[in-house]
Design a protein that fits this description.
This protein is mostly helical and about 100 residues long.
């Protein structure tokens, strides 16, 4: 059977391709070993590896300055009050309208 180039495929795609093309068992095992499954029930890394990678990623984050954080917090609070006032006003108007109808 001719060899299939599997480089462009990742994870599950390779598994599906292997099953669809009815590759013999030895080749199927080598493909699945080369591209291990990833998913909810498959352990892919240890907790130590996860924490090390998390620490590395956190180092790449550009954190806001104190001034930016305060400005964004104030902005969120102001928009929340404006939204609450708007929804309260609409609720009041609909209550009056329904009170007149009922």
């Amino acid at each position: 059977m001719a060899k299939i180039d599997l480089e462009p495929f990742q994870g599950r795609s390779v598994k599906i391709l292997a099953m669809r093309e009815a590759i013999d068992n030895s080749e199927r095992r080598s493909i699945l070993a080369k591209y291990p499954q990833r998913g909810f029930l498959v352990k892919t890394m240890s907790i130590k590896e996860y924490l090390n990678e998390t620490k590395t990623e956190i180092a790449h984050v550009s954190w806001p300055t104190r001034k930016q954080a305060i400005a964004y917090t104030v902005l969120v609070i102001v928009i929340s009050f404006i939204t609450a006032f708007y929804l309260g006003a609409i609720d009041y108007v609909f209550s009056l309208i329904l009170g007149k109808i009922i």
